[in-house]
Design brief:
Length: 116
């Protein structure tokens, strides 16, 4: 007998490719598009609604995400949906996630040789 949880996991895993180098679980299905801030995040249809796959996967394994928290891709791979390892998708506070984004931006600028 399969529970709803098992069915959701199976539905997601059917479209996931595991990257043996990074350990990322890469979504091969549709994404939110290629432009803008919210781009390139995995999307799927669940019970007639379009949802972010990494969120659906995480919630399915760990439960509801409280309002002040959000999921961060520690591996910096937006298509990664891996819920069982906090070096991939991790629950953080919104504030911490925003700080990390700023840090990543500064690092990227430095790498390009721009004085920030
Ligand atoms: Zn990952």
């Amino acid at each position: 007998m399969s529970s709803r949880r098992d069915r959701i996991r199976a539905k997601i895993m059917a479209r996931v490719e595991i990257d043996s180098d990074t350990g990322c679980w890469l979504w091969t299905g549709p994404t939110s598009g290629s432009d803008g801030r919210g781009a390139d995040y995995p999307r799927m249809s669940l019970d007639g609604q379009t949802v972010a796959v990494h969120k659906a996967m995480w919630t399915n394994e760990h439960g509801f995400i409280p309002g002040k928290k959000e999921l961060d891709h520690v591996c910096r791979n937006r298509r990664c949906v891996r819920p069982d390892n906090d070096r991939h998708v991790q629950m953080v506070t919104r504030k911490r996630n925003a700080l990390r984004r700023e840090e990543a931006k500064r690092t990227a600028l430095r790498c390009e040789g721009v004085d920030a």
